[in-house]
Amino acid sequence: MKTETISKKNGHSLKAFNVEDIGDDHLFTGLETPMKPNAFEMSNTEKKERISILFSEIMDVLGLDLNDDSLQGTPDRVAKMYVEEIFSGLDPKNKPKVALFDNKYQYNQMLVEKNITFYSNCEHHFVPIIGKAHIAYKSSGKVIGLSKLNRIVQYYAKRPQVQERLTNQIANELKTVLNTENVAVIIDAKHLCVSSRGIKDDTSTTVTTYYGGEFNTASKIAELQNYINN
Ligand SMILES: [Zn+2]
């Protein structure tokens, strides 16, 4: 079995992990999506051409007849879908630009945007993660357009992901743009790699949470849970 030592940013290294175990247990190695330094040297057009060639090879190895009318266009479709849609959140150019507004109404309680549906993909198996995100924040003086909360979720979801990292990436982005620690992110998602393969558990969902600043108290957490569950 293959083992690999994973280096942490501070220079210390974690004990050697089995890379297969990391994938099967859905562990993750850091807050940032692991990217190559030269990730954007290739144009999107080149990326689509390369992915199409490589995906047709996968289909060919599986024994599929690429001359069949139904299958012929699949490699191009998959390439386009990867680059322009489901993995478009890898490209910082697609990050939503967030405009802030003055908090004119002096609303200074929590704002909760709940049930934001998202589709992501598990980075260990490349199959869908389907879930709902609930976001809360307390204004530091500025407010954000509600649709932007949704867009921030979608941007980070459109990457190969691990749910814990998705949660933290959304929370970090909100803290940065809203200039406050007072943000909360709750994600409840179904992982198709758990329901359709492996352990084949069709009923379980995974919940991850981030409670920052004033949200990190038992009473605020209970208040938030109450809004989300009703
Ligand atoms: Zn998975």
UniProtKB/TrEMBL annotation:
Keywords: GTP-binding, Hydrolase, Metal-binding, Nucleotide-binding, One-carbon metabolism, Zinc. GO terms for molecular function: GTP cyclohydrolase I activity. The keyword Nucleotide-binding applies. PROSITE patterns: GTP_CYCLOHYDROL_1_1, GTP_CYCLOHYDROL_1_2. Zn(2+) binds at residues 122, 125, 193. SUPFAM superfamilies: Tetrahydrobiopterin biosynthesis enzymes-like. Its EC number is 3.5.4.16. Pathway: Cofactor biosynthesis; 7,8-dihydroneopterin triphosphate biosynthesis; 7,8-dihydroneopterin triphosphate from GTP: step 1/1. It catalyses: GTP + H2O = 7,8-dihydroneopterin 3'-triphosphate + formate + H(+). InterPro entries: GTP-CH-I_C/QueF, GTP-CH-I_N, GTP_CycHdrlase_I, GTP_CycHdrlase_I_CS, GTP_CycHdrlase_I_dom. The keyword Magnesium does not apply. Residues 55-221 form the GTP cyclohydrolase I domain. Gene3D superfamilies: 1.10.286.10, 3.30.1130.10. PANTHER family: GTP CYCLOHYDROLASE 1 (PTHR11109:SF7), GTP CYCLOHYDROLASE I (PTHR11109). Homopolymer. NCBIfam families: folE, PRK09347.1-1, PRK09347.1-3. Belongs to the GTP cyclohydrolase I family. This is GTP cyclohydrolase 1. It comes from Winogradskyella echinorum. The lineage of its organism: Bacteria, Pseudomonadati, Bacteroidota, Flavobacteriia, Flavobacteriales.
